[in-house]
Structure prediction request, 1100 residues.
Amino acid sequence: MSDVIIVIGAGSIGQAIARRVSSGKHIVLADLRQANADAAAAVLSDAGFDVSTTATDVSSRDSIEALVETATKAGEVTGLIHAAGVSPSQASPETILAVDLYGTAVVLELVGNVIARGGSGVVIASQSGHRLGALTTEQDAELATTPADELLKLPMLQPDLVTDPLHAYQLAKRGNALRVMAEAVRWSKRGARINTISPGIIITPLAKDELTGPRGEGYRRMIELSPAGRAGTPDEVGNVGALLMGPDGTFITGSDILMDGGVTASYFYGELAPE
Amino acid sequence: MSDVIIVIGAGSIGQAIARRVSSGKHIVLADLRQANADAAAAVLSDAGFDVSTTATDVSSRDSIEALVETATKAGEVTGLIHAAGVSPSQASPETILAVDLYGTAVVLELVGNVIARGGSGVVIASQSGHRLGALTTEQDAELATTPADELLKLPMLQPDLVTDPLHAYQLAKRGNALRVMAEAVRWSKRGARINTISPGIIITPLAKDELTGPRGEGYRRMIELSPAGRAGTPDEVGNVGALLMGPDGTFITGSDILMDGGVTASYFYGELAPE
Amino acid sequence: MSDVIIVIGAGSIGQAIARRVSSGKHIVLADLRQANADAAAAVLSDAGFDVSTTATDVSSRDSIEALVETATKAGEVTGLIHAAGVSPSQASPETILAVDLYGTAVVLELVGNVIARGGSGVVIASQSGHRLGALTTEQDAELATTPADELLKLPMLQPDLVTDPLHAYQLAKRGNALRVMAEAVRWSKRGARINTISPGIIITPLAKDELTGPRGEGYRRMIELSPAGRAGTPDEVGNVGALLMGPDGTFITGSDILMDGGVTASYFYGELAPE
Amino acid sequence: MSDVIIVIGAGSIGQAIARRVSSGKHIVLADLRQANADAAAAVLSDAGFDVSTTATDVSSRDSIEALVETATKAGEVTGLIHAAGVSPSQASPETILAVDLYGTAVVLELVGNVIARGGSGVVIASQSGHRLGALTTEQDAELATTPADELLKLPMLQPDLVTDPLHAYQLAKRGNALRVMAEAVRWSKRGARINTISPGIIITPLAKDELTGPRGEGYRRMIELSPAGRAGTPDEVGNVGALLMGPDGTFITGSDILMDGGVTASYFYGELAPE
Prediction:
């Protein structure tokens, strides 16, 4: 029986973290589309990793239950890399909340029920969660602790209040970090840890398309004016993921690591401030 | 001419980060008390580091100016580790704001004027900054961007509103993270980066005294009930400092890394919640 | 002008190290075959790296000179990852010595003429170099210090003495580590460092083919009987490369890091001993 | 029951590695002199580590047996840092062989009998082992595999052949690396790894004394003429120790990592060559 790393989301960021923490372990790689999972598994297998795949819809509790069952059959689940989600340019507010907010809550609940002693997980959120104004203490607590299957019924998340995909995305990503805080307490009962990484603009094949697409000018301006003056690489997210999931990060749990080239700083106090 | 790392505060955390990033460089070590600086310098020198010391009062612009002049004479300033401060059990609200809030603002301003291209700094704040409720957007901006010498005149910081040392400390540490965001924009003009680390309970000689002192029971309970179930070590802060100041952290600037063994998570959503 | 990392050899190992040390820098990627360089560049570009390519024949001084000229035009050469070579199953003894031994000597000479202060390089050798019995002190010195263009004239390398491709390969790889020692002295005059990594069986697309090919059984047996009980991943070589090329490795130069899952240990003192 | 790290030798190098790998674990710290162990334990305890001490004479099998029993009673032995030894300026050839060669062999044997699955160890050897000319294949095998209690009876180690403390030291340190190779095979049966680090001149309080003592000029010349142009720090050895003992090093076993600022390279092919 191997140690198992569950990777949800077949994209570059999940892969980059997986590369840093999965040598000699078994990766269970889940994606909404089996074909995406298989393509990523082929790349990781060519890079020496032992990978199996499954199609998982993270907006479905049943589907996540099946994923967790697959993983526990493969070995002891010592790691979680949750990097699946839909972006505001891809989906409606309802879908974004269902996948990014509810789905993450269920993933944390179900993987948190089986995570091994000494295990560790990371959830990929977004710098977008850092742009939303402060919520009330009560709203924070609702997002953090409402039972997963009640989450989407919260008044603050109803369609009349969340009409814009970007707003839904910001709420979902803020909610991810809050949920991770509450789950960090629960995961600790099993001797495990969970943290959030909030990346900024990271170059992936999809991001490259966006940078040359109709909204590309805005993104390119954001990159040029940002303190770092460049976009990030998935491998840089891998650096942070490796720290959080490895022995150097064992005092870190319930945290949210913003790594955005300074975009958030500039949004609030620099050239990227909205007019 | 060597590369120079400025370390402000002779305590264990500053030393631990310095050990990770200063081999082959020159450390200019500043502390309020020359004797403390000398003692730490002796330890670091025995550990192979090249160190000079100076007495610096971080609540005094003149004193920080002298420190920066000393550092630039010694070489090119490629790093800053700002780990000086007073704790709520040591000082009045006025002193806490003067040292921890105003002093940090001046340090960031003056070191930011000379930091080398490719340079990087970390400011040690505290988990305490994460417990304060949300400030308004305007208050955030005031703490982030008010010219340093005007900071202590802000209405929100006046003695009638800040009567408790812990409140002053939380405001100062929240202010540090906000200030770092604004300075991250400015430091980027020189090709440099600056981040905050917010540690939880870290074992140092002083902390060991507190754990066995009159308020020790509260601290020990906090540690026992925390998700990590233990206090942290300065060397673990060194791990995060090394990441932030080194090549693996070049996409991270203006961020605040909370590393507290999950105490903040538990304060909001676990056993450490205030009654 | 960017910092430039020269990567010679478009295979997985060179790419994995490049991913760890090239964020925010420019990669000049050279391979014997332009198509291979372009394919690797496409992968790295999709992963957020800034890459240009060139076709380089490392057995030709003129070709390496052209590569170095291309690199210096692109910026300051702060890093070298030399991962090109031919394996004993691919080539004759003459070709192996020309590419792996002579080519590496010329690469080290010419890149060593331009490497930046603070720069660092790694040469990928092989565990095979550790299996060869001890050479004499004189032979070691000849391989280390004979001018590159005289190297292939050494009596010990003549065709009547080196008839087997594996022998040629072992000599070349031993020679790489020796050459790196001598060059470490020379590179230090520019404030730069150079080291060797000697990997064991690392999974790459080519290695996967070999493992399922006619000689696959021998390789699979070697893996199964090895102390690690598994092959390595390119990303694990990336871990060592990142250490050697980064600030944590500045006291390491002229060294050869064997990372082979214990195969060499077992070859000499374990189940993998030749009968 | 904690995870236990056995640290043998209370000096700076062992402490520096321990700091990197022991947060949240229990350190059993052994030294020949109880007072040295206690002093180091006080430093580590002030730095947040959980430490117990014992006096151990590594030239005595009984004493090492007692150490291992103490360690296994404290928890599961997941790590070994063997940094004890005598230097050629401190002892006779007989003592050097008894402590540095025989003692290390017994430590590796007895700790290797109890090391946990996934555990890892490092043995601190020395650059001196790299200066000795090549031994024969038979001599290598004798040093690697002769039962520990027979080791000192080997003909090559008899007093008429080993008359000089430096020669004894070089043989012992070469022997450490060879012994580690053979033990890497045996440790792998328990799923554990063991490697050697061969440091050059590392600044410690003892080394500082030597640098200013009667033989200081030779050492200072060696440092100045070395490629690195400086001595190393214990924390830099900690970097390598952390890699070898952590998840990034799981493909490395039976290796010997030379980290000497290029002194060995220069000894063979540079300014430090003996006349």
Chain B has eleven helices and seven strands.
